[in-house]
Write a structure and sequence with these properties.
By secondary structure, the chain is mainly α. The chain contains 19 helices and 4 strands. Strands 1-2-4-3 form a 4-stranded mixed sheet. The longest helix has 41 residues. 48% of the residues are buried.
Length: 500
């Protein structure tokens, strides 16, 4: 008898507005971080540096901006509504990702009911699940391999967030059915994603190559090749124009240390965690489960062809430490493959559920979305900003130090949240060649100081430090004469005397 592929699985057509309402509710499932959080301490530095006078003395703000288009967008959001606007944009990123999942589900199965059930399942994976006996909080339908993701948990806005546009583009393209406008819209979204974050060029290249292979296996031949070439060329051209810093990426020792000392969780197979294997199993299962669905043969080939190059690359990088292959992140396409695979599994489960004696699925799916989104929204309200949650940042805010400060390398939240220039921290490396080399020079100086605090007193670079944030237990003779501005939470802030 086979697996049904038509609308016979549709008990009753959902109202057109129901999927949009579901997506809006489920967008609240992911807890939103308060800026500046984690990577935002790097990616918002140039945008805030243009708007906060005291930050203009910060060295990082004077480095080459690797993402000028994102800086422009971030600046608009900051001017429009500050932290609220940035969090609202992060919410919209989640909404766009869920929309992409819904479009893919609709392309795989006719009708809205199965797609609506599937999108509720995808949204449920955004819940933190922090109280689970195993770390389910690390699992998400919108994560990928080797620490890559479309949407972080908790959610925040950064250049890589543009990857959600690739998910929507795939959904539009699968559902285009020779609709040139939808195909053109999909191509435009790919170009925009690459312009915001150039590492998506590698994702696009692998994805288009996998699409061509899937065309050949599925019997479509070479007829789409010109379109793929146009999309690829446009993505490269516009990405380079929008991000001139791609020509000044660091090389040599600075690049190698960055790839394997600073971000090994994004580059090395030996840094994989258990859920990386889970994602691989998910992709493999989806490649099998998708075959009876519409576009199933094509998508089955695409999932495998898109994933294998990244797997081969991560093995090569593990044994060769080839930074030139690692930093384009060939495995980053998994941030598209994993959501697609999760959608396939959700659609298959949704098709099973629609066989239950439920005449109208509107109330059940909406009720689930309200619970899921409500839990996330409640958790979001409980989130404290870094200047409250981080004792080091709170102390510097209270102290109001002047000039350039020396802080512990791990004090990643101080610069942007306290709005003070600092010498260096571990979270904010620039990417241009000379800038990354300078960052490592500063990093090594402060790392040496943390190992031997007494070395600060005779160091040449110490003359450029105007204030320090130190653990209160650390005693440095030449700093004992500096003024104590504030002390609490195990830290002390000292300011160089004006006469020194």
């Amino acid at each position: 008898m086979g697996v049904p592929t038509g609308t016979e699985l549709e008990p009753r057509r959902l109202n057109r507005a129901v999927p949009a309402l579901l997506i809006a509710l489920l967008g609240f499932a992911n807890v939103l971080a308060v800026p500046a959080y984690q990577n935002q301490n790097q990616y918002l530095a140039h945008a805030l540096g243009e708007r906060v006078p005291q930050l203009q003395a910060d060295w990082l703000v004077t480095t080459v901006d690797p993402y000028p288009l994102f800086t422009w967008l971030g600046g608009l959001l900051i001017d429009a509504g500050g932290d609220f606007a940035l969090r609202a944009a992060a919410y919209l990123v989640t909404v766009v990702a869920l929309t992409g999942g819904y479009l893919i589900a609709r392309a795989l199965n006719p009708g809205r009911t199965v797609a609506a059930i599937a999108i509720v399942m995808l949204g449920a994976t955004l819940i933190p699940w922090t109280t689970a006996p195993i770390p389910l909080g690390e699992l998400s339908a919108f994560h990928g391999l080797v620490g890559q993701y479309l949407i972080n948990k908790p959610g925040y806005l950064q250049p890589s967030s543009a990857g959600v546009l690739l998910l929507v583009a795939l959904g539009l393209w699968l559902g285009a059915q020779n609709d040139r406008r939808r195909s053109a819209a999909a191509a435009g979204l790919v170009v925009v994603a690459c312009a915001v974050h150039p590492t998506y060029l590698m994702v696009t290249g692998i994805g288009l190559g996998a699409a061509l292979l899937a065309d050949l296996v599925a019997g479509s031949g070479w007829r789409r090749l010109p379109g793929y070439l146009i999309v690829g060329a446009a993505s490269v051209g516009i990405a380079v124009l929008a991000n001139p810093a791609v020509f000044s990426i660091a090389g040599g020792e600075a690049r190698d240390r960055f790839a394997f000392e600073r971000i090994p969780h994004h580059t090395l197979l030996s840094s994989w965690r258990w859920y990386d294997v889970a994602y691989l199993v998910l992709i493999a299962a989806a490649a099998i489960l998708v075959r009876p669905l519409r576009h199933g043969r094509w998508l089955s080939v695409w999932l495998i062809a898109a994933t294998v190059p990244g797997l081969l690359a991560v093995v090569v990088v593990e044994f060769t430490r080839w930074a030139g292959l690692a930093l384009p992140f060939p495995w980053r396409i998994s941030v598209v493959a994993v959501p697609v695979a999760a959608t396939v599994v959700a659609v298959r489960l949704g098709r099973v559920l629609t066989r239950l004696p439920v005449r109208d699925w509107t109330l059940p799916v909406l009720a689930c979305a309200v619970v899921i989104g409500g839990y996330g929204l409640y958790s979001c309200v409980q989130v404290e900003p870094p200047e409250v949650a981080d004792p080091a940042t709170a102390l510097v805010l209270a102290a109001h130090p002047q000039g350039v400060g020396l802080v512990p390398l791990a004090a990643q939240n101080v610069r942007l949240n306290a709005e003070v220039p600092i010498y260096v921290d571990w979270k904010s490396p620039p990417y241009a060649g000379p800038d990354l080399q300078e960052w490592w020079r500063r990093y090594d100086q402060v790392a040496g100081f943390e190992q031997d605090p007494q070395s600060f007193c005779g160091a040449d670079w110490s003359t450029g430090i105007d204030w320090v944030l130190l653990p209160a237990a650390v005693q440095v003779p030449c700093l004992q004469e500096w003024d104590v501005l504030s002390e609490s939470g195990g830290y002390v802030v000292r300011q160089r005397p004006a006469a020194s």
